[in-house]
């Protein structure tokens, strides 16, 4: 059984990942921590509460950061996730939930300390909460089992950014936090656009989910109508990318992926801000700025057909 803290900004693909994880027998969600990103923090927190209540996911929701560490907040991507962060269909209605008492990064620290060596953090959003937890309690870097991140665009599979030619949204939204998290001594696995952009749920598969995936399948189909349009118009894809689901699948089906190790840095200023670069461990330079940085894992290939099949079957 894996003990998981889910850090998330729901978010359509975040909702898809949450409903997948909620049904996995070997995953125990210790907490859901919210964060700004696909919408403002009030909205993502409310969405996390709504999703857990409606779909019977038994984990406290703690409210996290509203702003990145150093840069100004980029506007929410309403054109992708809707005004309500869940496809703009007002599924949440007048639901108002109360987050559990306590601030996300502090609760993260407590949960990690209470379960040393056992907690996996699955981060599907800007990395601000994780960075704040590390600043408050650097020791947690030695106590976490694994940090799994949906984020980055490393260029290994020819794929570059989705919010700039080189940057992926979660990293772009807080590049300083990301650079800090990648360079702490905890073991990180990054699942970036290199692989997640291959994980397309076709419109036909989405329709099948709506027909045969019960209440969850129908809900996911409803919230992803506009999201599919975005992919159709911007990339000519007949379907939508399950970015956050791909990262969740790393926890349950790691053999679907191939990884490469090496230190990671994030550009924190200039035209390429938010770009993620990995130096493979087997690439050796003379004395270089990469020396002494912790080696982390990046997913470079995925069996996307099996991943999508696994997802639809699980739902
Ligand atoms: C990531 O950014 C967010 O919009 C998605 O939820 C996903 O986590 C993809 O770049
Ligand atoms: Ca997300």
UniProtKB/TrEMBL annotation:
GO terms for biological process: purine nucleoside catabolic process. InterPro entries: Inosine/uridine_hydrolase_dom, IUNH, Ribo_hydro-like. Residues 4-307 form the Inosine/uridine-preferring nucleoside hydrolase domain. Transmembrane segments: none annotated. GO terms for molecular function: purine nucleosidase activity. The keyword Hydrolase applies. SUPFAM superfamilies: Nucleoside hydrolase. One of its GO terms (cellular component) is cytosol. It comes from the Bacteria. Keywords: Glycosidase, Hydrolase. CDD domains: nuc_hydro_CaPnhB. This is Inosine-uridine nucleoside N-ribohydrolase. It comes from Rhizobium hainanense.
